[in-house]
Amino acid sequence: MRQLNVFNFTTLNGYYKGPQEDIGWHSHGGPENEYGVEAMKANSTLVFGRVTYEMMSSYWPTPDAIKNMPEMAKGMNEAEKIVFSKTLKKADWNNTTIIKDINEMATLKKGNGPDMTILGSGSIITQLAGLIDTYQIMIDPIALGDGTPMFKGMKTPLHLELVDTKTFKSGVILLSYQRIP
What we know:
two-stranded antiparallel sheet; 10 strands
């Protein structure tokens, strides 16, 4: 059985996106980027919602991404990817599969293969909460006046156990949680 994991950034007050979908507030330095590159080496299948997929696919294959963050760009571009979307008709970023509903995700999770990691994509974190095994949340030392909460629309409590922490010199804190069934 495969693990389904989350890796996401959030503000101190719980927003993973600011007003107008802005994510410019999370500019991480070398140690945070190095952590991300190391995480890419785990060869997880990456899982995105449509909005995050469109943002990622418009950046990572570009010459700018390859020049500015070559190792991360290589990992992102070579990784197997799943887009969770009911509206997307075609996915042009290499190694991408579109799935349309939670049942498909549950079937993939029960199968064999690499673990799966949701990047960003707050709406699918809420939809797939019952399937998610672990959460890695990087908390940036910033609070926004408005934004989109990571668990927006969640109807039932999500019980988690803290299993690890990491503090970066920038003030960013990584919290790693395991879901308690």
